[in-house]
Design a protein that fits this description.
Layout (H helix, E strand, L loop, with lengths): L2 H10 L4 H10 L4 H20 L1 H15 L2 H11 L11 H11 L7 H7 L5 H14 L5
Helix pairs in contact: 1-3, 5-8, 6-8
């Protein structure tokens, strides 16, 4: 399954390729429609990675527009200063969790760090630990 299909499958909470295929059929998507959806997802992913800082500022504005910015700040504050080592996972496992549950960082980790406005792997891991601390625990 392509990376785009995998991201869509996870976002929809579908357990496997068969469930994804069933969902696509239920949406009335034929092969051409499914391919268009995957292309769109791939474009969104590339834009998200290449324009991470701009997207992050837009997310803040959208949260503010929805009146949810205060709640998001409260959740981060409640998580406190979380060191990545307090997440109970190794560096590799924490990165894998983030890429599985949130978004793929790509093959070029230094480029991902720059795109996120971070300078070191420890800064990234600390940011990931904060995100993980604010998410509901299902696994």
């Amino acid at each position: 399954m392509s990376a785009a299909a995998e991201r869509i499958r996870r976002a929809l909470g579908l357990r496997d390729k068969l469930a994804m295929s069933t969902w696509l059929k239920e949406q009335g998507l034929d092969l051409a429609g499914s391919q268009a959806l995957l292309r769109a997802e791939a474009i969104v992913d590339v834009l998200g990675r290449e324009q991470a800082l701009a997207v992050r500022s837009l997310v803040t504005l959208e949260l503010q527009r929805r009146g949810e910015l205060g709640r998001a700040r409260e959740q981060l504050a409640a998580a406190g200063e979380v060191a990545w080592s307090e997440a109970g996972l190794s560096r590799e496992a924490l990165l894998q969790w983030y890429e599985r549950e949130v978004r793929w960082l790509g093959a070029d980790l230094p480029a991902a760090l720059r795109a996120l406005g971070l300078g070191t792997l420890d800064q990234l891991l600390t940011a990931i630990a904060r995100v993980k601390a604010t998410m509901p625990t299902a696994s």
